[in-house]
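Uroporphyrin-3 C-methyltransferase
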Amino acid sequence: MTPLMITLLVIAGIAILIAIGYMNHVVENNKLEKKRTEIELNDRLRRCGEITETFPGQLMTPGLKLLLTRLELNVNQRLLNLNKNNAAIKARITELNALVSQGESLPVNNPPAPIQTEAKAKDVRFLLEALHGQVTRAAQDGFLPANEAKHWIKEIRHILVLLHIEFFNNLGQHALQQGQPGQARLAFERGAQYLRKQPEPVLYSAQLQQLEAQLARANSTVLANSKQTADEVNELNEGMKEVNADAEWKKKVIYD
């Protein structure tokens, strides 16, 4: 074997080793990318499920339920591409396809969950933020057309306003039931101010009128209570004056 052939064999061996190393690198990267994608899709699936199952029934519309079902179906289909023999994913896809085929006639079983505390309002707001993220990502992936994504982002903002209306209204009504008209007035006033600051306040004119009427009622109660308290104070002062006058008279009689 000539030195030239030996050199060529060495070079060929090195090239083969480099090629093998590169292929192993590509395979490992593909495995990592597949795993990363799978983790991301499972996280999106979890978020979709959380929104679908826990969203308050009074704010869940058939259209929103259908959107969430479609988003979940899309994620499951992408997961099936990564795990083609997964029987559980295949079964779930069959269920979701049946629901999507019903359109907006699909069942909406979310029970009402009154927004009565700030903690509950925050929980629902977080769900809306998660839904906004799901819609945005679905649009980036090309699953949702741009015009449909814009529609749902606008609808999410609308639901957020409805959330605040219910929260301030319930807060005020609860304060009235507890005999705290001052707290009720503050709640109704915050609600009215929130609606006036909306980009399209005319959409909520009916709700604004209702909050303003409740605000006026609470304010009247506060004023009436203030007048009653003032009258009671005046009566007490008059009574104290009579007691003091009687005491002075008795002193005068004793010392005279």
